[in-house]
Design a protein that fits this description.
- The protein is an alpha/beta fold.
- It has a domain at about 405-650: P-loop containing nucleotide triphosphate hydrolases (Rossmann fold, 3-Layer(aba) Sandwich).
- Helix content is about 65%, strand content about 10%.
- It contains 23 helices and 12 strands.
- The chain has helices spanning about 5-10, 20-50, 60-65, 75-80, 90-95, 100-110, 120-170, 180-225, 230-275, 275-285, 285-335, 345-385, 445-450, 475-480, 495-500, 510-520, 525-530, 545-560, 575-590, 600-605, 625-630, 635-645, 645-650; strands spanning about 405-415, 420-430, 435-440, 460-465, 470, 485, 495, 535, 565-570, 595-600, 610-615, 620-625.
- The strands form 3 sheets. Strands 6-9-10-3-11-12 form a 6-stranded mixed beta sheet. The chain has a 4-stranded antiparallel beta sheet with strand order 2-1-4-5.
- A hairpin with a 2-residue loop joins strand 11 and strand 12.
- Helix 8 (about 180-225) runs antiparallel to helix 12 (about 345-385).
- The longest helix is centred in the middle third of the chain and has 52 residues, at about 285-335.
- It is elongated and about 125 Å long.
Length: about 650
């Protein structure tokens, strides 16, 4: 999939809820029209300021009188025009070359005769500019608001898809697979894509309308005022300034970045040279060191000077380009206007319109850069979304009743995702219902074995069975309803204590949550918190100890009453009281329950019915702890290395 096709897929998400993008599209031509209206009103204000509403050429007034012979105020208007007094909008209507526009202005004056007064005319224009500007701001706000709503809705859908898809990918469940960079890069890619979709929708769809109206405005000025090619010259100059200026800025940024790297490398080499004094003295490298220093100093000086040059170009290059273009523009304009009556107001309006076009092109360029980054982000996101999920539920999967016989792993092998690294290698074992088993040894192997039980991952080879039923042939919901897990990576999340224990499931009432917390010896410390069970915990809430986290996770598992329980003990952070509470919970709650322990205490290992030792992904030995200590030298050595400093206390 190419970057462009990935971005096009992302753009389709904009139209799942078509109201916002449709409204934004309908508003697009209105913005340009309002911008033209503002320019026209500004031009009329400039005309009033320059000409004061006076008809300087009386022949124009006589022509107007000939065309409006039946006008009731004809003689009064001629008298005022002859006396060189201001006529407000009437004066502009008389001086306008175009018959249609002049007639339109005349009709407006006839409806509102007070517009023949310069002050009334000025106030009207001021109010008009204010109202149109407010309307322009409202329409622009609605445009951006609807574009933002469309892009936010698209990214929300993509976030939901990524979130759902990530939960289906078993590889992300593995602790040794670093999820932080994956999650961080995905979130950054989504943010980048949102900015890109917003820029694409707002600039690529809306700005062409603004350009269209502004170009039409320029052509109209050319035709109405008889100064052909003027707008073309100005547009060409603005286009050259934009293109060449953008190239200068990009080259300057690239050169400055390159020289900054060279300067940093030179600085590193100079610092290294200062640390070579012992080597230089021992091996008589004085002359070599001196020559090397001179080369480094020359290289450093050249890099710094070049960087300064590119900084100067970056900051002043556009001004230098403007200094070159302005005389050429002036030459072209003066040559075009020498044989014509120069009218200042149309020229000012042209410059304002071209300035607006230049700003639109700059925004377009910035949006293009944003879209380029968004295309790369979209490519990565859809590569993730297009990956097939690792764990699937087959059609016609059966419901798995509570385990009554045994849990089996038959010749199970698991490879680390995307590598040949073996996590489990041909593991075959059987755990009877109600048995308590401690798994020790290889940390990655025992966690991988635990992840197989609720089908967070599936084996690359072999089967996992409960009561002779292979797990892929039973429903995921029924499997996960039977398996409770207390793992150190997933003890709590940012929410209330009640939701942490119930996982937000409303079927668990507060009395049941409290009973589970009491069984895990968590109720007392919960009630000491200011909010009790409504206290928000996690990184953004109340900070708890490792022991308190662990007890809340135990309460979560106890509340669900699973038939199979996997518990990973905390490696540290438990006081003697915490250990006693934990042992009491295990003694009461785990009685007769199938339990797989991932212990970090010798006492827990000794209390287990059976110990399974994993080494290099395979089952090295299994049996009661005392038997393994007697017959297996590797197990005895492992136990000594893990617990010898605590043996006296644990025993």
């Amino acid at each position: 999939m190419t970057k462009r096709s990935a971005f096009q897929r992302a753009c389709h998400f904009l139209w799942y809820r078509p109201v916002a993008p449709t409204v934004s599209l309908l508003l697009a031509p209105i913005t340009g029209l309002l911008l033209i209206a503002i320019l026209l009103l500004v031009g009329m204000v400039l005309d009033l300021a320059i000409n004061k509403g006076v008809v300087h050429d009386f022949t124009l007034a006589q022509q107007w009188a000939g065309n409006h012979a039946d006008h009731p105020d004809k003689q009064a208007i001629l008298n005022i025009a002859g006396n060189k007094q201001g006529l407000g909008l009437q004066g502009l209507a008389i001086r306008t070359n175009n018959r249609w526009i002049g007639d339109a202005m005349q009709s407006l004056v006839d409806w509102f005769p007070t517009l023949r007064n310069n002050y009334v005319y000025l106030i009207t224009l001021t109010v008009g500019i204010l109202l149109v500007s407010v309307l322009f701001s409202i329409v622009t706000f609605l445009q951006k608001r609807t574009a933002a709503a469309a892009s936010i809705d698209a990214i929300t859908r993509l976030r939901r898809s990524v979130h759902t898809h990530a939960y289906r990918m078993g590889s992300l469940a593995l602790r040794h697979v670093s999820k932080g960079p994956v999650i961080g890069s995905t979130m950054r890619a989504l943010d980048t894509l949102q900015e890109g979709l917003y820029s694409w929708f707002l600039r690529t769809i809306h700005e062409p309308w603004n350009l269209f109206w502004l170009l039409l405005f320029l052509v109209g000025i050319d035709c109405l005022h008889g100064i052909p090619w003027t707008s073309l010259v100005l547009l060409a100059a603005a286009g050259l300034y934009w293109l060449i200026g953008s190239w200068i800025a990009a080259s300057a940024r690239q050169g400055e970045r390159r020289d900054a790297i060279k300067a940093a490398e030179g600085q590193t080499l100079l610092m290294e040279s200062l640390g070579l004094h012992r080597l230089v003295k021992i091996y008589g490298m004085e002359q070599y060191s001196k020559n090397r220093l001179e080369r480094l100093l020359h290289r450093q000086g050249t890099a710094v000077q070049s960087r300064w040059y590119w900084q100067f170009i970056s900051r002043h290059g556009r001004w230098l380009l403007l200094a070159v273009l302005l005389p050429l523009i002036a030459l072209a304009l003066v040559g075009n206007l020498l044989d014509r009556d120069l009218r200042f107001v149309p020229l000012i309006l042209m410059l304002l319109a071209i300035g607006c076009i230049y700003l639109i092109l700059k925004r377009w360029q910035a949006a293009w850069y944003q879209v380029q980054k968004a295309q790369a982000a979209a490519e990565g996101l859809f590569q993730l979304l297009d990956q097939e999920t690792d764990v699937k539920q087959v059609v016609g999967a059966e419901f798995l009743p509570p385990m009554t016989q045994k849990l089996e792993l038959v010749n199970v092998s698991v490879l680390a995702p995307g590598t040949d690294d073996v996590l489990l290698d041909g593991v075959t074992l059987s755990i009877a219902a109600g048995e308590q088993v401690a798994i020790v040894g290889d940390e990655r192997a025992r966690l991988t074995l635990a992840y197989l039980l609720p089908r967070l991952i599936d084996p690359d080879q072999g089967d996992v069975r409960i009561d002779e039923k292979p797990l892929p042939w039973v429903t995921l919901e029924s499997i996960r309803h039977q398996v409770g897990m207390v793992l150190q990576d997933d003890l709590i999340f940012n929410d209330t204590i009640a939701n942490n224990i119930s996982c937000g499931d409303e079927q668990y009432t507060l009395p049941r949550i409290i009973e589970a917390a009491k069984a895990a010896h968590a109720h007392n410390f919960i009630m000491k918190l200011q909010g009790g069970y409504d206290t928000v915990i996690g990184e953004l809430g109340e900070q708890l100890t490792v022991s308190q986290h662990f007890r809340l996770a135990l309460a979560r598992a106890i509340l669900r009453d699973p038939t199979i329980l996997v518990i990973e003990e905390p490696a540290n952070g438990l006081s003697e009281d915490d250990k006693a509470w934990f042992d009491d919970t295990l003694a009461r709650f785990l009685q007769g329950r199938t339990t797989i322990l991932l212990p970090h205490r010798l006492s827990t290992i000794r209390k287990a019915d059976r110990v399974i030792m994993l080494h290099q992904g395979a089952v090295l030995d299994q049996g009661p702890d005392a038997d393994l200590v007697r017959r297996n030298a590797r197990y005895k050595h492992w136990q000594y290395m893990q617990f010898h400093q605590f043996q006296e206390v644990e025993s």
